Amino acid sequence: MLLQTVTPITVLGTTVLFALFLSVTAHLAARNVLGDVDPRRALYIGPLPAVTAIVGVTYALPEALIVFVALLLDAAMFAWSYDQPRRLVVGMTVIHAVITTLLAVVLFSVSLLFATMPG
């Protein structure tokens, strides 16, 4: 078994990639609710939930608390970035959570299939 050490570069890389993934799915959620929107606005949404997840896991906080805080920050960033009423912000946040979960499951499943491929 290959044991890897955790370095600041690996933590930073993981955080940046996770923030980018969350920003892409945030843009998909915003497009679903609002129609044609500027994709640069979604770049503001991903970093805070990503940092929340990384810090929460690092300090072994309860997963329910991490998810709750990340969803609150996600909603706050949607409200700030898109300046929409609360009802639309809640809709975008829920759709963002669903899209992120579904896409993450699909990507994980595909990577698992490739990892277990014979040959």
From TrEMBL:
Membrane-traversing stretches: 6-30, 94-115
Keyword Transmembrane: yes
Key words of the record: Membrane, Transmembrane, Transmembrane helix
InterPro entries membership: DUF7473
Pfam families: DUF7473
Official protein name in the record: Yip1 domain-containing protein
Organism per entry: Halorubrum saccharovorum DSM 1137
